[in-house]
Amino acid sequence: MITIAKSKNIVRSHFQVIDGHCLSFANESFDIAAAITTLEFATDPEGMVAEMARCVRKPGGQMLFGVLNALSRYNQERQNEAGGPYALAKLFSPEQLWGLLEPWGQIQMIIAGFVPRRGGLLTLAPICELAGQLVGSQRGAFIAAKVQL
């Protein structure tokens, strides 16, 4: 993904691979830090979030997260696939993610990705998404969260 990002020649951007548990940036270097489908594969998610918070300015900075929802049947099936990329992932429920992020600031969270379980029903995805949002389901495949520091 880094190679693809670099190939886009995005102005004023820099891409590198680093360990999220030990970021090589000064304190409060950024306005925003993001981890999208990353915490699930971290050996120490709490430490990674703390390291991100260290690198974001306070007050006013933000941390953005996207994680795979442990309550989603779709994700549970993917995680149970032997040898699949998610077999070793530690998925988070909305409650677990909230608890992980709560010490760092004000949280906004949304659950999305209400995917039909059968591929042939994919055209119904927008209706499933709307229904999931309307009933406040906690079982969407994806959790997005913003923490205002």
Question: What does this entry look like structurally?
Answer:
The longest helix is centred in the middle third of the chain and has 11 residues, at 45-55. The model has no long low-confidence stretch (mean pLDDT 90). The protein has helices spanning 2-7, 45-55, 73-79, 94-101, 125-135, and strands at residues 32-36, 62-68, 106-112, 142-148. By secondary structure, it is of the alpha+beta class. A 4-stranded mixed beta sheet has the order 1-2-4-3. Helix 2 links the parallel strand 1 and strand 2 (62-68).
For this entry, give a set of tags.
globular, 5 helices, alpha+beta, 4 strands, 149 residues
In short:
It contains 5 helices and 4 strands; from the N terminus they run αβαβααβαβ.
Beta-strand proportion: 15-25%
Mean pLDDT: 90
Measured as a percent range, the helix fraction is 25-40%
Give, in spatial order, the strands making up the sheet with the most strands: 1-2-4-3
Q: Ends: how far apart?
A: 28 Å
Structural class: alpha+beta
Shape: globular
- Low-confidence segments, given as residue ranges, are none
User: Total strand count, please?
Assistant: 4
- Rounded to an integer in angstroms, the radius of gyration calculated over CA atoms is 17 Å
How is the main sheet built? 4 strands, mixed
How is the topology of this model organized?
Layout: H1 2-7, E1 32-36, H2 45-55, E2 62-68, H3 73-79, H4 94-101, E3 106-112, H5 125-135, E4 142-148
Parallel strand pairs: 1-2
Antiparallel strand pairs: 2-4, 3-4
